[in-house]
């Protein structure tokens, strides 16, 4: 009986770190970087620029639904906005390029981004992210934040697709 108890204690000590909330989700051992941080509790506006077109949305006065700036009568799915925020907040990158030059930004397509996403917050602040070219070798898009344009990440194509 004592042997079984000792065995259970050993199993517990070995397995308990796997159950801990402090354990990172990426267990591959590779360092990953958070690409974006968007406080959804303060989010009041979203502007998406893709190609020549631009769409603007704002949280209504009751803070219960989103309105399209072009036509507030068009019903919008609140889950679509949650998906946009979640896709960027959850985006992690194995690649973080720092000190990127203007010439390199052009190579990555970030001098003239294919998509821009701007988030406006109730505290009058905003964050804007730029999507550049697709790296067809690894199916990752180059992305940077307007406030830190010389830092470039690479994110899964699914992140951009969620925004589109």
Strand order of the largest sheet: 4-3-2-7-8-9-10-6
SSE pattern: HEEEEHEEHEEEEH
What best-fitting shape do the alpha-carbon axes yield?
A: globular
Radius of gyration: 21 Å
Distance between the termini: 61 Å
**What is the β-strand count?**
10
Query: Major beta sheet, specifics?
Result: 8 strands, antiparallel
Mean pLDDT: 83
Which class of secondary structure composition applies to the elements? alpha+beta
Work out the strand percent.
25-35%
Number of helices: 4
Protein described:
- This protein is α+β, with helices and mostly antiparallel strands and 164 residues long.
- The chain is built from 4 helices and 10 strands.
- It has helices at residues 2-19, 78-89, 102-107, 157-163; strands at residues 33-34, 43-50, 53-59, 66-68, 92-93, 96-97, 115-121, 126-135, 140-145, 148-156.
- A hairpin with a 4-residue loop joins strand 7 (115-121) and strand 8 (126-135).
- Helix 2 (78-89) packs antiparallel against helix 4.
- The longest helix is centred in the first third of the chain and has 18 residues, at 2-19.
Which key features would you list for this structure?
10 strands, alpha+beta, 26% helix, 164 residues, 8-stranded antiparallel beta sheet, two-stranded antiparallel ribbon
Q: Could you give the topology of this structure?
A:
Elements (H helix, E strand, L loop, with lengths): L1 H18 L13 E2 L8 E8 L2 E7 L6 E3 L9 H12 L2 E2 L2 E2 L4 H6 L7 E7 L4 E10 L4 E6 L2 E9 H7 L1
Helix pairs in contact: 2-4
């Amino acid at each position: 009986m004592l042997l079984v108890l000792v065995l259970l204690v050993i199993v517990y000590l070995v397995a308990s770190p796997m159950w801990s909330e402090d354990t990172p989700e990426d267990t591959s051992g590779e360092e990953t970087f958070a690409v974006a941080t968007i406080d959804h509790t303060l989010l009041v506006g979203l502007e998406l620029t893709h190609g020549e077109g631009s769409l603007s949305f704002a949280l209504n006065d009751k803070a219960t639904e989103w309105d399209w700036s072009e036509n507030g009568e068009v019903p919008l799915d609140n889950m679509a906005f949650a998906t946009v925020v979640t896709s960027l907040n959850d985006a992690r990158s194995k690649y973080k390029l720092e000190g990127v030059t203007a010439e390199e930004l052009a190579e990555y397509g970030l001098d003239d981004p294919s998509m821009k996403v701007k988030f406006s917050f109730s505290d009058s602040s905003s964050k804007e992210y730029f999507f550049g070219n697709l790296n067809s070798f690894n199916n990752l898009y180059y992305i940077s934040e307007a406030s830190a344009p010389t830092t470039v990440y690479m994110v899964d194509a699914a992140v951009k697709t969620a925004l589109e």
